[in-house]
Design brief:
Chain lengths: 415, 854
């Protein structure tokens, strides 16, 4: 791909500083949006760009924004989801540390479009250095008149705050994030009502992922048509694929949506490390159902992966080689979700904890007949029956691993 | 809208959850986390149903019905799934008894052994037989749990008053957490940890005592398991019977359910269908009723003084004795003391007995200087303008609430709930108080006024409002001009200095009062207890007229309104309570009949003292005759709460010992003294008479009350909407070199008749000991005082002892204590109203000095 949208400037030194950013024609998109466009124009453009959410669920951003009621007597808020908790995912961190002003531009334009005057960036607690860099960038933006009162003489006001999380994966779930931001325990809320109508402090709220918002500036500068062409007609733009695991060149790769998974692993990441054979791939963060080696000839976009009974999620690709025991993969998955369950609902809290206990027992060589069926039963009871999507996120990968590698797991049980 | 549940077509109106609709139509869906008083939660997942067209099952407790929905609640798959979810819950819960096949037989042959350290099954559980989880398991036909039992091994929390917390039995339904947060506004408990480690707990695992818990017991009442259990009944059998009653411990008048076993009270709980309290109560009604009825201080037998000693006698003898002696006194020589905690019927008979039989007007009663009392006084002077009755529920509908002079957390827990609901619905709350109150965390504005400066605050607000227009409509109200003139005459040059409130805050207050409606003004003793209390009420009343606010004069004693109403027919010519005490000391009063609390009379020169009370108190040894009275639970009658609501309460248990109802004693005495017209068979005869002779009672009948009709006392005074011209009250309380601190009185009402509740309830004493003398950390530091140290407080008129309690929110330079008793001094409950505070009709504040030690 010739021109990158998000990671173009990652290689430049000091690009996170506003003077360097401005030298490279930074804040053009904000200027264009605030000076030349109405909020309605922007909404149309973003809708037409078919920009789907990069946080996991792939919901079209423009449509989400249009759910926010126009006339309300409450303030509206933007919450930027920078919790990046999905195992295998590390793309947002790159954006925020290498190109924080790109994100800020996205935040300003989104806020202008939806009529928001306060935005919060909810960043995972472990990203301390990144949070500091963001704060620096924000203060630079204030100094240069891109934030604060009457931005670029447009009459538009916006304040941006950084809020650091405290290390719970569930706080990346949008409603738990809101609770946490309100200073409470990060427990997911029931939906409906959706945050667009009742969100932060009971007010209409837009929640978007860092990467989602970072796409907005180029949509404004180059238009929806251009953006769609970068990806697929119904799924526009690029993704930053984070490749990890047993490949020669792990790292981030910004590629068109729809790029073949095989190519990502074997061309861009230069194939398997140490000449090992590929065993399986998790294509979209730990929650995404696993693909076997013979299933990876697949286009990496939301719909194609759904058709393959998996998901694109956060586009974090975890590559597993022949030497890795699938039981270890299962152990990581079950331990993670049972530990990260918020504990509100029965199937997820107790179900995932039993699955974890059984898997641990198998790992200890004390597997019993019926264990595997019990895991399947427990996971199926979680699926579709929990308060928030974490339950599904826990159950889906477990069911997929067992379905696709049952024989191997059975061998551990019987040994 | 129409929906179909299990093939049954149902007509539904309004926004309702599927679970609610099912329950209304007797369709059973198991549920554990849902509760009618709480917002849907969706945690337990037992209530799932199948909705046609939806991919996943939906939790019926948080899914609202839509037109045309087709719902199935009992498909085999659903039932299997529910059973498996329940099995998950049971895998972490002692389940042996729940799934035991010998269950039925076991129940027949084994009684519950509840006194064990660890609860490993229902037979060892204090909740056995009254357990929602048990009931649900019963409906789901669980024969085995496919998992090994997992005992979480949490330490049982036993250090707090009133209830234990054993989270090994907790199913994490979240009801306790939610009721504490959503309804009680205490937020003392929350979920802590995550995943399988999730548990309910307090901040930093502190005891509840240090976590802002009000010990209302709401969490205990909603808990579907034995995780939260009241300690007093933990090892008791199940109640055989439950009867309704009304709590006599404050002016809200919560309806209670009293659990009985073998004719004795086990405990008390708030009634879900109580018109006032809707399933809520406070620590007193929830945990202390049993203690006050079965107090070891109860007087069990009549006694008379013979040969200088009190001796037990029969009622007949006692009554004859009292009749003989009482006959000697008449008119000014005799006085009676009743209590606002007695029923209307009792108080009516006391009035009648005093006036018609003893021919005396000296009938007094010690009560707090609550707004109700001041209203009463004002109405005697025809100064009363606005309506007295109100509905507590209307507070929750207000959009702006102005609260003055009351710590709702302690003295009005039920009003607190309504204020909270209003705030949740978006109301703005303005609190004017010298110290930071628990409620302040919900306020939009806290006016930290200097003690006693409310009058200046209110009249200044009135002036801002008039100066900023808005007079047009008001000028038609009577007395507007003289009110306006009186405002202009007030010197406001120092208002910011006097009140301690900035101009900005005052303007913000005025704006809020004008902009938001409806407005509710809630005021309590802090406003009315001052010598100029009636001027404060007048000022507030004017402001209410200006802003079209409704006034909510908060009472304190449960039947103060009733006490006033039954006396309305008589001109108030007798001596006030204080004067009665003085008369007793001077010897002008020779005979005293006590049916209400009274300070220690050791200095009185009385010839004859009758004590008719439930409890042995300091005056017991001085009495010539002691007549044991029943508590509210052992008799019947009516109370009138602060709203003006007439509340019928019935006898729930037989009296302890030979105690008799107060009305019975009086009617017997009156009959023996030869008067006709006192021959009542029961209380209904008294009520019939009252409804004939007291106009305000004309609409009251037991029959109507028992049929559930809401009846409010008729407000017979003609009420005119009128402004009241204001007078300046002169200087506020001033401290001096000799008396450098200001003492004010807390607004708790922790006594029943002559019993300070803390004396019987160690738990209550831990929460708020009436012997505490509260002081700010700064002052404590300055005086080098440590928490718990004994302390002596002296004023120009007396002294008392207590213990240091350091309170963060106390303003510097002030100390406070509650109205009650300090066990080791001669100051008793009511003495504060009188001896210590010299003002006739007020408590006010007092310059004092503080000394370490006794
Ligand atoms: C358990 C859980 C964890 C999540 N964690 C994240 C996260 O770390 N970052 C993120 O952007 N979205 C996360 N999401 C998705 C968010 O809920 C939400 O859909 C997203 O922030 C919306 O933004 P988008 O539309 O721009 O993708 C998570 C969802 C779930 C259920
Ligand atoms: S599914 Fe898990 S994380 Fe989500 S609410 Fe339920 S217990 Fe919490
Ligand atoms: S809480 Fe209920 S189900 Fe559990 S042991 Fe006690 S009685 Fe049995
Ligand atoms: S007793 Fe009341 S205040 Fe205390 S934890 Fe329970 S609900 Fe909360
Ligand atoms: S303590 Fe009782 S009410 Fe609270 S979560 Fe546990 S089971 Fe539910
Ligand atoms: S003391 Fe008052 S609030 Fe408490 S239970 Fe009794 S009536 Fe209700
Ligand atoms: S009752 Fe509906 S989820 Fe618990």
């Amino acid at each position: 791909m010739k021109e990158k949208i998000l990671s173009k400037h990652f290689v430049l030194e000091n690009f996170y500083k506003i003077d360097v950013y401005l030298q490279k024609k930074g804040y053009q998109a904000v200027k264009k949006a605030l000076n030349e466009k109405t909020p309605e124009n922007i909404l149309e453009e973003v809708k037409a760009a078919n920009l789907r959410g990069r946080g996991g669920a792939g919901f079209p951003a423009g449509v989400k924004w249009s759910f926010v009621p126009q006339q309300v007597d409450k303030p509206k808020y933007l919450c930027v989801n920078a919790d990046e908790g999905e195992p295998g995912t590390f793309k947002d961190r790159y954006i925020m540390s290498h190109d924080p002003h790109l994100l800020l531009e996205g935040i300003i334009i989104t806020s202008y479009c939806v009529g928001i005057h306060t935005a919060f960036i909810y960043i995972r607690g472990e990203y301390e250095a990144v949070a500091l860099r963001l704060e620096k960038a924000i203060s630079e933006a204030y100094k240069n008149g891109f934030l604060g009162k009457n931005i670029l003489e447009s009459g538009f006001d916006l304040d941006v705050y950084v809020h650091r999380g405290a290390g719970a994966y569930i706080c990346g779930e949008e409603t738990a994030l809101l609770e946490s931001l309100e200073g409470k325990r990060g427990n997911p809320r029931l939906k409906p009502p959706f945050p667009a109508s009742i969100g932060l402090f009971q007010s209409p709220t837009v929640i978007n992922n860092v990467e989602t918002l970072s796409n907005i500036p180029s949509i404004i500068l180059k238009g929806a048509k251009w953006f769609c062409k970068k990806g697929l007609p119904e799924d526009g733009g690029t993704r930053i694929f984070g490749v990890s695991g047993m490949v020669k060149k792990p790292g981030i790769y910004e590629l068109s949506i729809g790029t073949n998974l095989k190519d990502i692993i074997f061309k861009h990441a230069k194939g398997m490390a140490e000449g090992k054979k590929l065993k399986a791939v998790i294509p979209g963060g730990l929650s995404a159902p696993i693909l076997k080696a013979d299933e990876i000839d697949i286009k990496m976009d939301f719909d194609s992966l759904v058709n393959a009974n998996s998901m694109l999620g956060s586009a974090a690709i975890v590559v597993i080689d022949e030497d890795t025991s699938i039981l270890d993969v299962l152990k990581v998955v079950t331990r993670f979700y049972s530990h990260e369950s918020c504990g509100q609902c029965t199937p997820c809290r107790i179900g995932s904890s039993w699955i974890n206990k059984i898997v641990r027992r198998i790992c200890d060589g004390k597997g019993k007949n019926g264990d595997i069926d019990n895991i399947i039963r427990l996971a199926s009871n979680i699926l579709g029956n929990t308060l928030c999507p974490l339950g599904d996120a826990a159950a889906m990968p477990i069911l997929a691993i067992i379905k696709k590698f049952r024989e191997e797991i059975e061998s551990y049980v019987s040994n | 809208m129409k929906i179909i549940i299990d093939g049954k077509e149902l007509e539904v109106e309004g926004k309702k959850t599927i679970l609610n609709i099912a329950q209304e139509n007797d369709i059973f869906i198991p549920s554990l986390c849902d509760h009618p008083r709480l917002a849907p939660f969706g945690g337990c997942r037992l209530c799932i149903v199948e909705i046609k067209g939806r991919k996943n099952y939906a939790p019926s407790c948080c899914t609202y019905a839509d037109d045309g929905m087709e719902i199935k609640t009992k498909t085999p798959r659903l039932q299997r799934l529910r059973r498996e979810i329940l099995e998950l819950i049971l895998s972490e819960h002692p389940n042996a008894c729940l799934i035991c096949s010998e269950k039925e037989n076991c129940d027949d042959y084994k009684s519950t052994i509840r006194k064990v350290g660890e609860t490993t099954g229902c037979v060892l559980c204090s909740n056995n037989g009254r357990c929602e989880l048990q009931d649900i398991v019963e409906t789901q036909q669980i024969e085995q749990v496919k998992f090994p039992s997992f005992y979480r091994d949490f330490e049982v929390k036993k250090s707090d008053p009133f209830f234990d917390r054993n989270y090994n039995l907790c199913i994490l339904c979240g009801r306790c957490v939610r009721i504490c947060h959503e309804v009680r506004g205490a937020s003392a408990i929350a979920f802590v940890n995550r995943g399988s480690q999730t548990v309910v707990g307090t901040v930093l695992d502190l005891p509840l005592l240090d976590s802002g818990c009000q010990f209302c017991g709401a969490c205990v009442d909603v808990c579907p398991t034995g995780a939260l259990t009241e300690r007093a009944i933990k090892y008791e059998m199940l109640p055989e019977e439950t009867k309704k009653s009304v709590c006599p411990l404050c002016s809200a008048g919560c309806e209670l359910k009293i659990d009985l076993m073998g004719g004795k009270i086990l405990g008390s709980k708030p009634s879900e269908d109580g018109a006032v309290n809707r399933g809520q109560a406070c620590v007193k009604g929830r945990f202390i009723i049993r203690d006050l009825v079965y107090s070891p201080r109860r007087i069990l037998k009549p006694l008379i003084r013979a040969n200088k000693k009190l001796e037990e006698v029969s009622w007949e003898e006692a009554l004859d004795f009292v009749t003989r002696r009482l006959k000697k006194y008449k008119g000014k020589e005799i006085a009676l003391i009743t209590s606002p905690q007695l029923s209307c019927e009792d108080n009516y008979l006391f009035q009648k007995f005093a006036r018609e039989r003893l021919k005396t007007e000296n009938i007094g009663s010690s009560y707090s200087f609550s707004p109700l009392a001041v209203y009463h006084e004002m109405s005697q002077k025809n100064q009363l303008g606005l309506a007295l009755n109100f509905k507590i529920r209307d507070i929750s509908k207000a959009k702006v609430i102005f609260l003055l002079g009351e710590d709702l957390a302690v003295s009005h827990p039920l009003i607190w709930l309504e204020v909270l609901e209003a705030v949740k619905n978006g109301a703005k709350l303005i609190v004017a108080s010298p110290n930071e109150l628990p409620l302040n965390r919900f306020s939009s504005l806290w006016l930290q006024i200097k003690p006693g400066s409310e009058f200046h605050l209110l009249s200044f607000l009135s002036r801002i409002l008039i100066e900023n227009g808005g007079a047009g409509r008001l000028s038609r109200i009577e007395e507007f001009d003289s009110f306006k003139n009186s405002l202009n005459k007030l010197d406001i040059s120092q208002v910011f200095e006097i009140t301690g409130i900035t101009e900005k805050e005052l303007i913000k207050t005025a704006r809020l009062l004008l902009e938001e409606e409806p407005a509710a003004f809630l005021f309590g003793m802090g406003l009315t207890q001052h010598p100029w209390g009636s001027q404060n009420v007048a000022a507030l009343q004017n402001l209410a007229l200006q802003t079209q606010a409704q006034l909510f004069p908060l009472g304190l004693e449960n039947n103060l309104r009733g006490l006033f109403e039954v006396g309305r027919n008589y001109p108030d010519k007798g001596l006030a309570f204080n004067k009665i005490i003085q008369g007793a000391s001077s010897g002008d009063i020779k005979a005293l009949y006590l049916a209400g609390p009274m300070p220690y009379l050791n200095k009185a020169k009385l010839e004859f003292l009758v004590l008719q009370d439930c409890y042995i108190n300091e005056n017991f040894e001085l009495a010539d005759a002691v007549l044991p009275a029943t508590t509210f639970a052992e008799t019947e009658g009516t109370f009138i709460n602060e709203e003006g609501r007439v509340q019928r309460f019935k006898k729930v248990v037989e009296p302890v010992g030979d105690a008799k109802p107060d009305w019975w004693v009086i009617s017997q005495l009156a009959c023996k003294m030869g008067n006709k017209g006192f021959n009542y068979k029961d209380v209904s005869g008294i009520m019939k008479e009252m409804s004939k002779v007291i106009p305000g009672f004309s609409n009251i009948s037991y029959l109507k009350l028992e049929n559930g009709k809401e009846i409010f006392i008729r407000d017979e005074k003609k009420r005119r909407k009128s402004f009241i011209p204001l007078k300046d009250n002169g200087p506020l309380y001033k401290t001096s070199k000799k008396y450098p601190y200001l003492l004010f009185v807390d607004y708790s009402l922790d006594y029943y008749r002559s019993l300070p509740l803390g004396r019987e309830s160690l738990g209550l004493r831990k929460i708020r000991d009436s012997r505490w003398i509260k002081i700010s950390p700064e002052d404590a530091k300055k005086l080098k005082l440590d928490e718990g140290e004994s302390l002596r407080v002296e004023s120009s008129s007396g002294s008392f002892n207590g213990f240091v309690k350091i309170i963060e929110s106390m303003p510097k330079g002030t100390i406070s204590t509650s109205l009650l008793w300090s066990e080791d001094s001669d100051f008793s409950a009511v003495s504060f109203f009188t001896g210590f505070f010299q003002e006739e009709n007020a408590l006010g504040m007092l310059p004092v000095k503080i000394k370490r030690g006794k």
